[in-house]
Amino acid sequence: MGHTDLKFFTNEPERDLYTRFSVILKSNTQFFDVLVGYFRTSGFFKLYPALETVEKIRILVGLNVDRFTVKIIDRSREEIKYTAFTKKESIEFFEESVENEFENSTTTSEVEKGVRVFIDWLKSGKLEMRLFTEAPIHAKVYIMRKDPEKVPDMFGSVITGSSNFTEAGLLNNLEFNVELKDASDVQFALDKFEELWEKGEDIRETYIETVQNRTWMKDDITPYQLYLKTLYEFFKEEINADKENFQTLLPEGYMRLQYQIDAVTQARQKIDAYGGVFISDVVGLGKTYICAMLANTFNRNTYKLFICPPVLVDYWRSVLQEFDVARYDVESLGKLENIIQKGTDKYSYIFIDEAHRFRNSATESFTMLHQICRGKKVILISATPINNYTSDIENQLYLFQSKQSGTINGIRNIEGFFRGLNGKLNKFPKGSEGYMKQLRDNSEVIRDKLLREVMIRRTRSEIEEYYEDDLKAQGLTFPKAGENHLRI
């Protein structure tokens, strides 16, 4: 049952402060005065449509003084005293708080529109803003006065309580606020507001200059700066990743090749994000060594299981031993049943060499491998992850992703994603021109929406192009057909 005349607002259902403000402000409110310790433009984003008909808005804000309040401590009296900031200090603190707010805000068109309206109103005088610096402000008071010509029998109302003028204070936080409607209460609050307002520092120009010159709302951002920002956002995890000292992970006689180091860093990020990764560089780029270094980035107390073809069991064991990988087992992919019988609970990471052998989900071996991988982090190693059909890659994805609860690139229903692509393909006769075009289109969608997120795949020509300087510095060239191979 709804409430029509509430006094208390807690942001619980049907008692949120945002809705109450919207109702009051749209109901012939002429003046809106705000006194708060914390001001965030996010509060204005939400309310500005309701404020459009208000004639005058005044916001008096205190400093965000949590970091600065304790200026003098009288230890003999065990008192904390506050010393007023200079005007210069106050403005600098306010500028910093505005800049930090925008740094952490969402960059949406809604936010941008709200900020531009806010600035327009500051410039026109509809909105005034001052900063009180003589003492910390912990009060939250909102005074709304009616237009006497339209509402002659009501002076207005005042809301006070715990909510700051922020989106969280208006909607999200559990708060406690009360609305008072007696004219004497409203007048008392207004008198106190006027007293403090006269002592405040005008910060309209400060706010405008800070937003327009020190935030993403700048009007003079060049295309090149936007390009650099795009690159940073795309690669920021890799840029900011804590780099391992890979030199200590390399056995004597092995080159420290940057393309292999980058593969390890990228693989670790993908595993942390999605629970698995494809290591799918072409033959000859050192996938085994990349995986050995990757294994060494994991906690040495965790167990790793390496599954590979029978002829490669001894090779894998020798490489892992040479790289000093801790706590691992190497098993033949022909002995999956034995692995299950011995138990897999101790393993945190499963490495599967020649993972393309498990592209068919209808086989018994896939069923057993899927059981082994359940709840583990999975590294799929294959130079040819896709052989014939898109189902090849789909089935391998299910070794570390749930069919209907996926986490890759916002695609929850991975099974439905592939079903939709196959539906488009099946509209054409197999082998026809339309079929082949749709197949290429499907492959492009799969690559861009899924594989780009979970696969590392480079060709020799790409390595030679993008890592040219590193290869030259180490005197490394890839062997041609018939040449002796250099260990990399």
Please specify the SSE layout and strand pairing:
Blueprint: E1 8-9, H1 17-25, E2 29-36, H2 41-51, E3 56-62, E4 72-74, E5 79-81, H3 87-104, H4 109-124, E6 127-132, E7 140-146, E8 156-161, H5 167-172, E9 177-180, H6 183-197, E10 201-202, H7 204-214, H8 223-240, H9 258-274, E11 276-279, H10 287-297, E12 303-308, H11 313-322, E13 328-332, H12 336-342, E14 347-353, H13 364-373, E15 377-381, H14 390-397, H15 414-425, H16 433-454, E16 455-456, H17 460-466, H18 468-473
Helix pairs in contact: 1-2, 2-4, 3-7, 9-10, 12-13, 15-16
The major beta sheet can be summarized as: 8 strands, mixed
CATH topology of the largest domain: Rossmann fold
- Which percent range describes the beta-strand content? 15-25%
User: Strands of the biggest beta sheet: in what spatial order?
Assistant: 1-9-8-7-2-3-6-10
Round the Cα radius of gyration to an integer and report it: 32 Å
Q: What is the second-level CATH architecture of the largest domain?
A: 3-Layer(aba) Sandwich
Shape: elongated
The class by helix and strand makeup works out as alpha/beta
Poorly predicted regions are 65-82
CATH superfamily of the largest domain: Tandem AAA-ATPase domain
Q: What is the helical fraction, as a range of percent?
A: 40-55%
Number of helices: 18
Please provide the count of β strands: 16
Assigned CATH class of the largest domain: Alpha Beta
Q: Span between N and C termini?
A: 73 Å
Task: Please state the average pLDDT score.
Answer: 85
Overall number of domains: 2
